[in-house]
Design a protein that fits this description.
Blueprint (H helix, E strand, L loop, with lengths): L1 H17 L2 H24 L1 H14 L11 H5 L1 H15 L4 H17 L8 H15 L7 H54 L17 H23 L6 H23 L3 H5 L5 H27 L10 H5 L19 H27 L7 H6 L12 H4 L7 H22 L7 H10 L4 H27 L4 H17 L5 H19 L5 H21 L12 H19 L2 H5 L4 H27 L10 H27 L6 H19 L33 H31 L1 H4 L1
Helix pairs in contact: 2-3, 2-8, 2-20, 3-7, 3-8, 5-7, 5-8, 6-7, 6-17, 7-18, 8-9, 8-10, 8-12, 9-10, 9-25, 10-14, 10-26, 12-14, 17-18, 17-22, 18-22, 19-21, 19-22, 20-21, 23-25, 23-26, 23-27, 23-28, 25-26, 26-28, 27-28
Length: 744
């Protein structure tokens, strides 16, 4: 049974990959390559088709799933900058010194594009490809041949820009569905990780099966989901005017609510685990969460397959039946806080809210429930990334400690060294392969470079074997074109998801393309040559990571300050009285934007911390307080999500006169604790007078009475967490300040 289940799981995983947006995008790019190069081949011949194919390959990196708006301007810079560079490399083919003098400054300017972040990285890669693939061509016999090749390169590049805009427009509807399904799969994985926290303790008080890395896994999954949600917002929230688009946008809004509910689901979990009769109740909650994750995955699969999802059962009755083994036992004399029975019912109720949202998700996908898009439809532009190019990243780049500037200098020096070595090697006629390896391996952080280095070496070995086997069969020009098309589809599709696969396909693509441009190349010799070039290029990329390094610790203070500022603003808006009185107007929009920034800033901090783990121990930031700050930040978000749920879902059981004052005072205290620049001095615990409650008061059963005391308890806990965040920030920043001269 286990083997059958494992086989079925692998089959489902393979099907999800095959139906994903990145595979669809890779196939679209490959079809464009085949269409353009094939058309040029029929009209102008094989050599012209090869040059046009290079134009397509150079222009393709920025062609990723995205909104229709701004697609043309995203695609334009690559051929606009790459075309003259391709021509100049053609002219300097036989002048190694002058070619090197072109490559180094051009590399610096290309990598400066990475100052624009995720939008700039593929453009920088494309510009470098234009020079490197121009080096892969035979030396032109004169100006006429150089102009002809450049013209054919330009034809392929320009045609592909037009094709990419049209293809993105045609695939936009499919991309929306695929991106939504991908988010649902990530949400289901997060549900399963959250469910593992409900593993009960055994009689000795030890947890049965929760690994020590569970917190780190939760942090990474939350950060990855925040990143993924923004990419999905950009596609799904663009012009949600048709009923189908509105349904997907409404589902995305529900996913955002589900993320908050998942965070809040673990509140009071540790307190319940301290009770000896908790095991059966927690096992039941864990089972329900796992089943909800199964249903979320099934919904994603039906979206990918274009089917209507089946209705899902309501698990509220199962959750309502959960009770502790000794729930009827009288509470200890003098107990003031919540009883274990109350905690268990509260946990089950919060899982019930997750159940409700999953039911709404499925019903909305079926068309049984209409989406409520009052805020999103009117203000969708505020939730998507800008598509216009701004000069601000370029103007703010020119600081010696700016990571993009250092990375551009580092890349230029690595290319200069790699080119000098390549020219001196016995097989210097294929010097471009070392440079290609440096370009695709060298990244802004050591951890990313190490990952790419290993994948590149392994992928090149496999790719060389495949390419030699293919070339040894002496395929026809049509067969070569088909092989290049398949390799391009795989290389482009998996570039972001799994670089090892991309490396294998890119090696095959590069060798086949070089063979088409250099008739008569010896594939047997190329095998050893490419492996040696790859090892040299990967070693250089790794070595130059230590030249003008931008260690993560230099970015940590700004990321910590951004995180605390975002948490304080989110708390202020979540606890504002406008949230108590209305949830459909301006305060709700501002709160949603603040919530997005709180998650995004925390995601950036988590990712920087993860990257720092690969850096030398001497330059690592203080990891333990960083982990505490991240955990406390999610705990604060969880407490505020619970407060928000009470204000929205249970306002009929709240007494406004009792909670309006505490809401305002809690927002002020959180702002005072973390809203300003973090301190590096010693932090003292808050005094008792800072609490929201005047002292411990009995907590009534929240299902039978006014829940205002429970809301006040959440406010107290949120205030305490804010003080812990302030303390965490001081523990992080103080050692960084002390070591600043050394780090610099």
């Amino acid at each position: 049974m286990r083997a059958q289940r494992a086989t079925a799981d692998r089959g489902r995983a393979a099907l999800r990959v095959a139906l994903s947006h990145y595979v669809a995008n890779g196939l679209s790019v490959a079809f464009g390559l085949m269409l353009i190069s094939g058309g040029v081949h029929l009209l102008l011949g094989a050599l012209a088709a090869s040059a046009a194919a290079v134009g397509v390959i150079v222009t393709a990196p920025p062609d990723l799933p995205g909104p229709r708006r701004g697609k043309f301007w995203q695609m334009l810079p690559s051929p606009l900058i790459g075309l003259p560079l391709f021509f100049f490399v053609q002219l300097l083919h036989s002048a190694p010194l002058r070619l090197g003098l072109l490559l180094v400054p051009a590399t610096f300017l290309a990598f400066v594009a990475m100052a624009w972040g995720k939008r700039g990285i593929p453009i920088a890669i494309a510009v470098m490809f234009s020079m490197i693939f121009s080096m892969a061509t035979p030396a032109p016999t004169g100006m006429t041949e150089a102009l002809e090749r450049t013209l054919h390169f330009g034809i392929g590049a320009c045609l592909y820009v037009i094709y990419a805009v049209l293809a993105n427009h045609a695939l936009n509807g499919r991309y929306r569905v695929q991106a939504m399904a991908d988010v649902l799969l990530s949400l289901a994985a997060l549900m399963r990780t959250e469910a593992r926290q409900f593993t009960p303790r055994d009689d000795s008080g030890d947890v049965r099966e929760v690994p020590t890395s569970l917190l780190g896994q939760l942090l990474r999954e939350q950060a990855a989901l925040a990143d993924q949600l923004q990419a999905t917002r950009d596609i799904v929230l663009e012009s949600p005017r048709t009923p189908r688009r509105q349904r997907l946008a409404g589902m995305l809004v529900l996913v955002l609510e589900l993320r908050d509910l998942l965070l809040a689901s673990e509140l009071d979990l540790d307190a319940l685990k301290a009770h000896p009769g908790h095991a059966a109740a927690l096992c039941e909650m864990q089972r329900v969460l796992d089943e909800l994750a199964d249903e979320t995955e099934a919904l994603a699969d039906t979206l990918l397959l274009g089917r209507e999802p089946a209705p899902v059962p309501d698990r509220r009755p199962e959750l309502a039946a959960i009770h502790l083994d000794d729930e009827d036992a009288p509470p200890p004399a003098g107990q003031i806080g919540p009883t274990p029975a109350m905690l268990a019912r509260g946990l089950a109720s919060r899982i019930g809210h997750i159940n409700d949202e999953v039911l709404r998700l499925v019903a909305m996908a079926r068309g049984d429930v209409e989406p409520d898009l009052t805020v999103v439809r009117a203000n969708w532009q505020m939730f998507v990334s800008p598509t216009e190019w701004s000069l601000r990243p370029f103007l703010t780049l020119w600081r010696w400690d700016a990571p993009p500037l250092r990375h551009a200098i580092r890349a230029a020096l690595a290319i200069a060294t790699g080119y000098a070595i390549a020219v001196m090697l016995p097989w210097g006629s294929h010097d471009y392969w070392i440079l290609l390896t440096i370009v695709v391996v060298l990244r802004g952080s050591l951890s990313q470079t190490l990952e790419r280095r290993n994948s590149r070496v392994a992928g090149t070995l496999l790719g060389c074997v495949l390419a030699v086997a293919l070339l040894s069969a002496h395929p026809s020009p049509l067969g070569m074109l088909a092989a290049v098309t398949v390799a391009q589809a795989i290389a482009h599709g998996f570039a972001v998801r799994r670089y090892l696969v991309t490396s294998v396909a890119a090696t095959v693509l590069g060798l086949l393309q070089a063979h088409m441009l250099n008739v008569g190349m010896s594939p047997t010799f190329a095998l050893f040559e490419r492996v040696a070039d790859t090892l040299i290029g990967a070693a250089l990329a790794w070595a130059f990571c230590y030249v003008l390094p931008s260690w993560e610790r230099s970015q940590i203070p700004a990321l910590v300050a951004r995180t605390l500022t975002a948490q304080a603003r989110h708390a202020r808006l979540a606890l504002g009285l406008g949230q108590l009185r209305s949830v459909v107007t301006s305060p709700e929009l501002e709160w949603r934007l603040a919530r997005r920034e709180a998650y995004d800033s925390l995601s950036a901090l988590v990712q920087a911390t993860q990257r720092s783990l690969s850096e030398p121990r001497a330059v690592q930031p203080p990891l333990e307080p960083l982990e505490h700050l991240q955990a406390h930040s999610y705990q604060l978000l969880a407490q505020l999500s619970a407060v928000k749920s009470m204000l929205v879902l249970r306002r009929d059981r709240l007494t406004p006169a009792e909670i309006e004052g505490p809401l305002a005072r809690t927002a002020e205290r959180i702002e005072a604790a973390i809203g300003s620049a973090p301190t590096t001095g010693p932090v003292m615990p808050e005094s008792a007078s800072a609490t929201t409650l005047a002292g411990p008061i009995p907590l009534p059963d929240p299902f039978d009475n006014d829940v205002s005391p429970w809301l006040l308890r959440r406010l107290d806990l949120a205030t305490g967490i804010a003080a812990q965040l302030r303390d965490d920030a001081a523990r992080i920043l103080q050692p960084l300040d002390e070591n600043l001269p050394k780090a610099a």
